[in-house]
Structures are given as C-alpha cells and as structure tokens.
C-alpha cells in the first residue's frame, strides 16, 4: 500500500513524511475492516454498503473475495464478485474476438467500428437484389454464443463499457438491436416495385470509435445561420442579447399587411393609412 511500485499509488506522504489513510471512509466501515487485521475475515454487519466496503478494501489493498468477506446480503456480495469476473472475462473477449475486427476496420481506413454479436447458430441470408435498407452492410458480424450470453445482462454491458474506456476508446455504445437475418416474403408495390420483408432477431451490438472527435471536421466548419422566425418565447428570450446588435444595424422590415392589421394605437404617425 505504501510502496512506490504500486500501480495506482493510492497513498502519498505529506510534507512531514506522514501517511494519511482512510480519507473519505466512514468510521463504521473502517471499524468493520479492522477485523481483517485480527482474524483475516471481515464480518460485514447489516446496514453496511457492500460497494463502500469494496472501495475500502481496494484502498487498503485487502482482497475482496468470498474467503475474506462474510455478510448476510449475498446478493450484493455476489454482484461485486460478478463485476470482477465480468471485467476479466471481457478482457479476454476483447483481445480474442473484438480487437481483430477493429484492426481489420482500421486497416481499411475506418475510424469507428459497429459490431453485431450473433449466436453460433444464426445464419444471415440477404437478397442480393433487395438488401436491408438500413445500413446493416456497414456492420461487422461476430458469431459467438459465449459473447452473446455475456451481453444479455445489462450489468455486463456496463462493465464492458468501463473496460473499453480504460483502453482509450471513444463514443462507446453497447445495447440490443434488431438485426435482419433472412427474408420472409416479397411484397409487390404499385408500379411493379418489390419490397422484401426480413426476419429480425434481437442481438447485442458494440459501437465504438478510436478518434477523439467523431464526425467533426478538422478543417472548415460552415456556420449555421439561426432562423429569426422563432415562435417559442423562451427561445426568443435567450436570443435577445445576440439579436440586439443585429437589429441596430438591420431594422426589421414592416410588411404592408402588418400595417393594415395593426391597431391604431401601435402605429407610428407615418404608418397610419391614408
């Protein structure tokens, strides 16, 4: 905990060379952790937050596992242990399954990657003349029932996002989407146009980028001119400060119909009808 070779170097000496520990840790949790130094086991009483206990164990370099932690709330304990297991498991999936696809996209000059995870039993049979009209042709397909089962849990998807962020990737999206596998039937539209109806299955997907600013030009960005015909009073109020200078140099033009429809009390002498 106090060594200079620690990966994250949790503790640092102050000006006097003293180490200040347990900062931000509640007295109740710290008192519970002290049992470890007496018996080698932490008996967690009811009311103690397992995530807080986990953070304290990480800070004090105490192994957080079922041999060390004994508590009544098995659900919270197993949740933390599952997060550890998911982190290690996804590290392996990333190196063995996902990274080769990302490297292949990078070699083609791509800056991002969209991967759909199908099961080993899934088959994709698209009509060559009428492919799905939703851009699926730009998606990479990964056949892996193991990764499919891993992504079924939203908690595992959250862990996977954390791992990808730790590895420096950007614009990460992981979720479940419908993916077309094969055509079901063909409809004939008026004029002889054909429409293919596809069968869609719900499968996990991963989308990520290795660029800092996805979709933004690094050269010239053309300015978008705001429309002045706003009807939202809140938006108009926000734009008043920006528009005052414009109105000083470019006074609004008064349409003839506006003059005729305006009450006499709001008209200037020159605007009164003859």
From TrEMBL:
GO CC aspect terms: cytoplasm
PANTHER family to which the protein is assigned, alphabetical: BTB/POZ DOMAIN-CONTAINING PROTEIN 10-RELATED (PTHR21637), BTB_POZ DOMAIN-CONTAINING PROTEIN KCTD20 (PTHR21637:SF1)
Domain (BTBD10/KCTD20 BTB/POZ) ranges: 1-78
Pfam families: BTB_3 (PF16017)
Lineage: superkingdom: Eukaryota
GO biological process, one term: positive regulation of phosphorylation
Taxonomic source organism: Gopherus evgoodei (Goodes thornscrub tortoise)
Protein name as catalogued: Potassium channel tetramerization domain containing 20
Keywords, alphabetical: Cytoplasm
GO molecular function: identical protein binding
InterPro entries hit by this protein: BTBD10/KCTD20, BTBD10/KCTD20_BTB/POZ, SKP1/BTB/POZ_sf
UniProt subcellular location: Cytoplasm
């Amino acid at each position: 905990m106090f060594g200079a070779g620690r990966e994250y170097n949790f503790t640092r000496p102050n000006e006097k060379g003293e180490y200040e520990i347990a900062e931000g840790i509640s007295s109740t949790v710290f008192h519970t952790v002290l049992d470890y130094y007496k018996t080698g086991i932490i008996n967690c009483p009811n009311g103690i937050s397992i995530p807080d206990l986990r953070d304290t164990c990480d800070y004090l370099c105490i192994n957080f596992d079922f041999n060390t932690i004994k508590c009544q709330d098995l659900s919270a304990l197993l949740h933390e242990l599952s997060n550890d297991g998911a982190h290690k498991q996804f590290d392996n999936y990333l190196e063995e399954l996902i990274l080769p696809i990302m490297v292949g996209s990078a070699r083609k000059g791509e800056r991002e990657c969209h991967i759909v995870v199908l099961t080993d039993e899934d088959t994709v049979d698209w009509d060559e003349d009428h492919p799905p009209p939703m851009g699926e042709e730009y998606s990479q397909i990964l056949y892996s029932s193991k990764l499919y089962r891993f992504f079924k849990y939203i908690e595992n998807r959250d862990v996977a996002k954390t791992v990808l962020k730790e590895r420096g990737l950007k614009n990460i999206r992981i979720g479940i989407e419908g993916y077309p596998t094969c055509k079901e039937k063909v409809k004939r539209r008026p004029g002889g146009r054909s429409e293919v109806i596809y069968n869609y299955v719900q499968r996990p997907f991963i989308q990520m980028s290795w660029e800092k600013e996805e979709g933004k030009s690094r050269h010239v960005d053309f300015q978008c001119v705001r429309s002045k015909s706003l009807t939202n009073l809140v938006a108009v109020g926000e734009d008043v400060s920006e528009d005052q200078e414009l109105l000083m140099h470019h006074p609004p033009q008064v349409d003839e119909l506006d003059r005729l429809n305006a009450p006499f009390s709001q008209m200037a002498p020159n605007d009164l009808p003859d």
